[in-house]
C-alpha cells in the first residue's frame, strides 16, 4: 500500500525513502535494531549501559554548531549519586529540563559521565516496558516512526501475506505472521520478541530457499549441451601434468567432467583456498570442453591476472594442438579486430581475458563453457552478458574466499559446490609475524639477508578507503624511499590502481623476470598473481585490511616449496586489531579465516555486496541463524517436491515464481 496513506509531510516521505521505505509493507518490515528494556532504575557503574531516574540539578548548557547541538547538565539520582549528562541534537528538550524535574536517562556511563541516547521527561515507573529502537534518519524521531509503524499495521490490517504454509507453522510451532509483526514492533515481553523473531527469520529464509530451489530446478530443465569426448585423452593430459593432482582436485575434476557430459547446464561453484590449485582444475575442464568440440572462455577480474592465466594455460598445453588467445582491453583496435574475427570463425579454442570477453562485438563460435575467476568481483550485469553469448553454456565460478561447504550450499543455494580443501604436497605455511611498528626498521635485517640470497619481495601499502589517488601517492612515496635505501643494489617497482593496465603489465612482467626485486604495490596484487621466486611480503598498516584480504595477500607468497615470510605491520593498539593480527600469525586455513571474518564483518563485506550474488536479509543473520537456514532449505526442497507431485502448495509456489519473474535479483 502507498506510503501516502500515512498522511505526513513531503519532507518526511523523503526521509523514509532515504531509509529505503517506499510502501507501508516496507515500514512494517523495517525492524528495530535493538530494544531498550526498562525494568527498574539501575545505576550500575560497571555496566556501560545505564538507565536511571534522576533529578535535574543544574541549568542546561547548550552549544550549537550549525544544525547540530550538544546539551550538558547535571542530575542526581535517589542514591545521591551525581552525574553529568551529555546529549546531542535534542535541543528541543531544553524547555522541559527545568531544575528539579524528574527524568529518566538512557545511555552509556563512564566515571559519572553519561552520554545519553535518550531522555524521557517521565519517571521510570511511567516508562517501564520494552522500547524498540530503530535506525532512523535525522528529522524523524523514534516516537514518530513508531506511530508510522502502528498506522501502517492497522491500515494493512492483516493483509500481509505469509509465505509459511500451515504445515510448517504447526511443525515449527510458529506464531501467526500478523502477530509476529505486531510483537516485533510492540512487544510486551522478551518472549514476544523471541517468538516474533522465530517466525520472521524462518519466513525470510524459507522464501529465499524456495526461490533458490526454484531457480535451480528451472535451470536443470534448461537443456545444456551433452559434451562427448575421449576420456582417455583427458586422462593422459592429467598424467602428463608436472605434478600429481591432490585428492580434492581429483574430486573437483570428476564433478566438473560429469557436469560437462550430462545434458543439463552446469552451474558450479569451485572454491578453494589461495594456492590450493584451482587454475589447473580449470585448465583440465577447458581441455575437456575443447575435446568435445567447443570453445571455452576464462574470465579474470584484472588484466594482470588474465595474462597470467593465459601464460599458465600456454604452459599446461605446450604439447597439445590447441589455440589460446588473450583478449584484454589494452590491445589496440586492430589487434582486437583480428582476435574478434578468429573467435567468430572458430580459429581459436580458448579465449582468456577480462570482462572485455563479453562485450557486444565479441561473437563466439560454439561457445560451450565459461569460467570466471574470483566470482565475487563480478556484477550481475556482467554475468547476464555472458549468458547472452551462448544460452547453453556451462558455467564454472571460482572463488578463493572459501567458506564451509554447508554454508556455501545454503548461501549459493542455486549452484552445485565443489571444494578444494587440501593443499598440494610440500607446501610450507607462510611464516607470519605481526610487527607492532609503522616502519620497516625491525625487519630490515631479514629483508636484506633475504634479498641477498636471491629472493624477491612484495611490499603492500596502506589501504586508503575511497581514495585510489591517496593510496597511489603513499605507494609512490614508499617506493621512492625504498629505492633510495637500496640504491643500485636492487630494483624497486611500483604498482597501483591509478596506472594504466599496460604499465601494470609491464611492471608485473619485470617482476616475474626478476628485473625488479622489490615490488611496492597496493592491493592490486591481491588476486591470483603467481611469482614463485617472491617469498617475502611486508604489509603496511595491516589493521586496515579485512582478514580474508590479508590471507589473499599472503597467498601471493609461498607458492612453491620454499619457506615464505609475511610481516604484518601495524602500530594500532586497538584490542580488536591486535587480536585479528595475532590470529593471522596462527591460522593458515582460509576456511577458518573467512569464518572469523564473516562473523566480524558480515557476508556483504567479505564476499562482496548484493550485486555479486551474496544474499542480504532484513532480519535473519546467515551465520548466527545458520541452523534455521538449513531447516528452511530442507523445508523448501520438501515443499517444492510436494508441489511437483501435485499435492498442494500451488499458491505458495506460484507466488514465489511470480516474484521471480518480476524481481530476478537472485537469478544471474
Ligand atoms: P589458486 O588459483 O587456487 O590460488 P593455483 O592454481 O594458482 O592456485 O596454484 C598454485 C600453485 O600450485 C601453482 O603454481 C600451481 O602450478 C601449483 N599446483 C597446483 N596444483 C598442484 C599439485 N597438485 N601439486 C603441486 N603443485 C600444484
Ligand atoms: Mg587463482
Short characterization:
The protein has 668 residues and is an alpha/beta fold.
What does the model show?
This protein has a 7-stranded parallel sheet with strand order 11-12-10-13-14-9-15, with helices on both faces. The chain is an alpha/beta fold. The chain is built from 21 helices and 21 strands. It is globular. Helices cover 40% and strands 18% of the residues. The mean pLDDT is 87. The structure holds adenosine-5'-diphosphate and magnesium ion. The site of adenosine-5'-diphosphate has 17 residues, from helix 9.
**Main sheet?**
7 strands, parallel
End-to-end gap: 29 Å
Number of helices: 21
Contiguous uncertain segments of 5+ residues: none
Q: Please estimate the helix content.
A: 25-40%
Taking Cα atoms only, what radius of gyration do you get, to the nearest Å?
Answer: 30 Å
Mean pLDDT rating: 87
- How many individual β-strands? 21
- Overall shape: globular
Share of β-strand residues: 15-25%
Structure class: alpha/beta
Which molecules are bound besides the chains? adenosine-5'-diphosphate, magnesium ion
As laid out across the biggest beta sheet, the strand order is 11-12-10-13-14-9-15
Amino acid at each position: 500500500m502507498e506510503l501516502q496513506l500515512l498522511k505526513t509531510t513531503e519532507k518526511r516521505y523523503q526521509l523514509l525513502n532515504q531509509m529505503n521505505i517506499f510502501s507501508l509493507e516496507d515500514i512494517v518490515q523495517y525492524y528495530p535494531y535493538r530494544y531498550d528494556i526498562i525494568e527498574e532504575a539501575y545505576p550500575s557503574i560497571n555496566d556501560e549501559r545505564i538507565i536511571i531516574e534522576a533529578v535535574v540539578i543544574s541549568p542546561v548548557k547548550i552549544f550549537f554548531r550549525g544544525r547540530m547541538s550538544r546539551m550538558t547538565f547535571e542530575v542526581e539520582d535517589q542514591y545521591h549519586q551525581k552525574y553529568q549528562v551529555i546529549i546531542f541534537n535534542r535541543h528541543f528538550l531544553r524547555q522541559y529540563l527545568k531544575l528539579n524535574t524528574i527524568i529518566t536517562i538512557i545511555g552509556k556511563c563512564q566515571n559519572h559521565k553519561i552520554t545519553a541516547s535518550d531522555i524521557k521527561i517521565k519517571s521510570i515507573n511511567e516508562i517501564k516496558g520494552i522500547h524498540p529502537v530503530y535506525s532512523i534518519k535525522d528529522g524523524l524521531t523514534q516516537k514518530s516512526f513508531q506511530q508510522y509503524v502502528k498506522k501502517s499495521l492497522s491500515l494493512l490490517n492483516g493483509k500481509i501475506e505469509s509465505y509459511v504454509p500451515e504445515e510448517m507453522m504447526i511443525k515449527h510451532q510458529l506464531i501467526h505472521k500478523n502477530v509476529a509483526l505486531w510483537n516485533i514492533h510492540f512487544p510486551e515481553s522478551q518472549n514476544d520478541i523471541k517468538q516474533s523473531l522465530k517466525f520472521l527469520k524462518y519466513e525470510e529464509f524459507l522464501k529465499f530457499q524456495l526461490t533458490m530451489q526454484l531457480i535451480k530446478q528451472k535451470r536443470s530443465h534448461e537443456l545444456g549441451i551433452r559434451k562427448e569426448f575421449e576420456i582417455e585423452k583427458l586422462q593422459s593430459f592429467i598424467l602428463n601434468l608436472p605434478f600429481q593432482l591432490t585428492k580434492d582436485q581429483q574430486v573437483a575434476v570428476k564433478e566438473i567432467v560429469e557436469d560437462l557430459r550430462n545434458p543439463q547446464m552446469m552451474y558450479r561453484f569451485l572454491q578453494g583456498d589461495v594456492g590450493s590449485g584451482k587454475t589447473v582444475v580449470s585448465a583440465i575442464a577447458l581441455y575437456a570442453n575443447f575435446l568435445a568440440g567447443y570453445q571455452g572462455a576464462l574470465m579474470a577480474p584484472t588484466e594482470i591476472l588474465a595474462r597470467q592465466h593465459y601464460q599458465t594455460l600456454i604452459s599446461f598445453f605446450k604439447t597439445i594442438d590447441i589455440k589460446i588467445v588473450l583478449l584484454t582491453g589494452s590491445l589496440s583496435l586492430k589487434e582486437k579486430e583480428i582476435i574478434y574475427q578468429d573467435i567468430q570463425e572458430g580459429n581459436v579454442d580458448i579465449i582468456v581475458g577480462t570482462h572485455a570477453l563479453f562485450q557486444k562485438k565479441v561473437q563466439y563460435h560454439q561457445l560451450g563453457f565459461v569460467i570466471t575467476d574470483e566470482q565475487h568481483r563480478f556484477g550481475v550485469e556482467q554475468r547476464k552478458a555472458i549468458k547472452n553469448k551462448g544460452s547453453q553454456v556451462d558455467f564454472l565460478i571460482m572463488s578463493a574466499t572459501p567458506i564451509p561447504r554447508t554454508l556455501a550450499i545454503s548461501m549459493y543455494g542455486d549452484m552445485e559446490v565443489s571444494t578444494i580443501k587440501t593443499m598440494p604436497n610440500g607446501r610450507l605455511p607462510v611464516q607470519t609475524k605481526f610487527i607492532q611498528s609503522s616502519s620497516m626498521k625491525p625487519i630490515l635485517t631479514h629483508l636484506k639477508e633475504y634479498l641477498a640470497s636471491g629472493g624477491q619481495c612484495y611490499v603492500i601499502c596502506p589501504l586508503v578507503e575511497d581514495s585510489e589517488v591517496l593510496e597511489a601517492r603513499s605507494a609512490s612515496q614508499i617506493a621512492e624511499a625504498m629505492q633510495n635505501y637500496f640504491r643500485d643494489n636492487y630494483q624497486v617497482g611500483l604498482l597501483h590502481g591509478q596506472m594504466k593496465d599496460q604499465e601494470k603489465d609491464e611492471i608485473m612482467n619485470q617482476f616475474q623476470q626478476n628485473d625488479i626485486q622489490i615490488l611496492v604495490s597496493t592491493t592490486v596484487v591481491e588476486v591470483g598473481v603467481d611469482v614463485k621466486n617472491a617469498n617475502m611480503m611486508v604489509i603496511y598498516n595491516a589493521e586496515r585490511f579485512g582478514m580474508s584480504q590479508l590471507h589473499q595477500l599472503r597467498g601471493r607468497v609461498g607458492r612453491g616449496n620454499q619457506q615464505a615470510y609475511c610481516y604484518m605491520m601495524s602500530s594500532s593498539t586497538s584490542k580488536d586489531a591486535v587480536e585479528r593480527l595475532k590470529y593471522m600469525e596462527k591460522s593458515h586455513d582460509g576456511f577458518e579465516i573467512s569464518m572469523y571474518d564473516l562473523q566480524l564483518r558480515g557476508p556483504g563485506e567479505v564476499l562482496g555486496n548484493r550485486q555479486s550474488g551474496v544474499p542480504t536479509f532484513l532480519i535473519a543473520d546467515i551465520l548466527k541463524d545458520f541452523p534455521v537456514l538449513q531447516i528452511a532449505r530442507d523445508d523448501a526442497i520438501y515443499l517444492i517436491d510436494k508441489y511437483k507431485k501435485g499435492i498442494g502448495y500451488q499458491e505458495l509456489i506460484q507466488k514465489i515464481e511470480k516474484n521471480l519473474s518480476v524481481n530476478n535479483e537472485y537469478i544471474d
